[in-house]
Amino acid sequence: MESNFLKLLGEFTAGDPMREGVLWTNLSRREISRRLAEMGSPASRHTVRKLLKKHGLGQRKARKKKSLGNHPDRDAQFQNIAKLKAAYQNAGDPVISMDTKKKELIGNFAREGHTYTQTQVDTLDHDFPSAGEGKVIPHGLYDLARNEGYVHLNTSHDTSEFCCDSVAHGWQQHGCTHYPNARRLLLLCDGGGSNASNRHVFKEALQKLADRLGLDIRIAHYPPYCSKHNPIEHRLFPHITRACRGVVFHSLTIAKQFMEKAKTNTGLNVTVDILTGVYATGKKCATDFLKTMTIAFDDYLPRWNYRAIPKDY
Known about the structure:
It is a single chain. This protein is of the alpha/beta class and 313 residues long. Helices cover 33% and strands 19% of the residues. It contains ten helices and eleven strands. The strands form two sheets. Strands 3, 4, 5, 6, 7, 8, 9, 10 and 11 form a nine-stranded mixed β-sheet that branches. Helix 2 packs across helix 3 and helix 5 packs parallel to helix 6.
């Protein structure tokens, strides 16, 4: 039996050319059992499981662990972010992690996950955006010291202006109350999207935000391919996803209600608000912005570390 088993696996087994001894088969235990019977070696699925285990073949799922790239300044920026976080937190100043969560269709569309219901829930069999009422764009802020999340929903576009309006709303509704004496703010974010490190339009919106709030706003971007290390990615967003699992977002209000239910055993508190502004894409910064801006770039890794200083600071 074992010789037929090995012969069968030899025909349906692939390997990793970069890692000797890493093999996998696309056959299920039921299929292996059936094929062995056809070869004259009947074996139950239980026996097949033992044979697979004996030869080091177990059921596994591919893990997203390999980085797409490794920037030469990766470790240096992580060390710099750690120092900035410690300095701000020791001084009692806010450290906020921000990012935009995955966009969701609004309408009668199926979403991944299960819910307890009294009747069957039927949704559209195709996720055509034209059959819905647009998309909800959740922009999130996570306060590291207070373990609080502030999510702002919009149905327009994920732009730098929306990003900065989200920060402004979060500060005016919560930040200025929790940090009444703060004159500076540290924002941690990745380097793409609405807060891209190489976009002047984001820096212009950031400058307006600093003037609007009267705060010295420091930005620290995570290096390329490292956005998963941004605290909001594992301290806020997964819990919001879990709270909304299987729920049909028939309206923006329903999305808000369920996102606010996100909780953890460590006391995470989430507040969700709707921003009704309309944000246009394709905007360009003012022609004289580079001459008049008060963005101060650090001497150390300036492309990822800089401050927006209010003009009347």
